[in-house]
């Protein structure tokens, strides 16, 4: 396992072996049965290309009213608990006693992307964000702590884990595109990303 450091982001290549990746996929499949993936609207009215759901006390949601955390799925039910298998990765990579209260599940089908943004809907930016990649490769772009400026890109592969903490906690980042069909982990292709955050 090697760790790349790009602009303060710790990128753990091959953090999860294939057996562990399969355990996570099984956990996500159980999760999306009770909290189905949805394509949120942006505040600007256009739907996001990524489909999302959440686990934990809070789920991240976007619609015409803006971005925010909610305690319920848009269909009305409470979010399911964060699977233990996912929390174990947080424990391992952060070593923190405090655990995340949101696991955002992002699903990128062919053509899906996520524009450059900051993760800034949480109360306390001293907690890191941990992001787990599963399935197809995704081209991750890293910018700066303010909008604009130069960027650097790195391909995230299945089993890679990114820790965004310290000075990099508010650094702009996004996914330009995925390499559809590059992984055989998910039978239907596509990329899964699990983002763990301390919200409150
Ligand atoms: O899919 C990824 O790797 C990044 C996801 C992300 O930045 C987010 O959900 O805030
Ligand atoms: Fe993000």
Automatic annotation (TrEMBL):
Keywords: Dioxygenase, Iron, Metal-binding, Oxidoreductase. It comes from the Bacteria. Its cofactor is Fe(2+). GO terms for molecular function: dioxygenase activity. Residues 99-200 form the Fe2OG dioxygenase domain. The keyword Metal-binding applies. The keyword Iron applies. Pfam families: 2OG-FeII_Oxy_2 (PF13532). This is Alpha-ketoglutarate-dependent dioxygenase AlkB.
């Amino acid at each position: 396992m090697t760790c790349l450091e790009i602009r303060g982001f710790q990128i753990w290549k091959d953090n999860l072996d294939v057996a562990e990746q399969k355990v996570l996929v099984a956990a996500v499949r159980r999760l999306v049965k009770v909290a189905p993936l949805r394509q949120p609207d942006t505040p600007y009215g256009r739907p996001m290309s990524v489909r999302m759901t959440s686990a934990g006390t809070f789920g991240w949601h976007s619609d015409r009213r803006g971005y925010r955390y909610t305690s319920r799925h848009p269909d009305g039910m409470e979010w399911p608990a964060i699977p233990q298998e996912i929390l174990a990765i947080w424990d391992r990579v952060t070593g923190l006693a405090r655990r995340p209260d949101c696991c955002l599940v992002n699903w990128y089908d062919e053509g899906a992307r996520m524009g450059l943004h900051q993760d800034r809907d949480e109360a306390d930016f001293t907690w890191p964000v941990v992001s787990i990649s599963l399935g197809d490769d995704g081209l991750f772009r890293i910018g700066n702590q303010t909008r604009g400026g130069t960027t650097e890109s790195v391909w995230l592969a299945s089993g890679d884990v990114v820790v965004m903490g310290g000075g990099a906690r508010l650094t702009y980042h996004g996914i330009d595109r995925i390499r559809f069909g590059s992984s055989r982990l998910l039978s239907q292709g596509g990329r899964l990303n699990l983002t763990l955050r301390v919200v409150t």
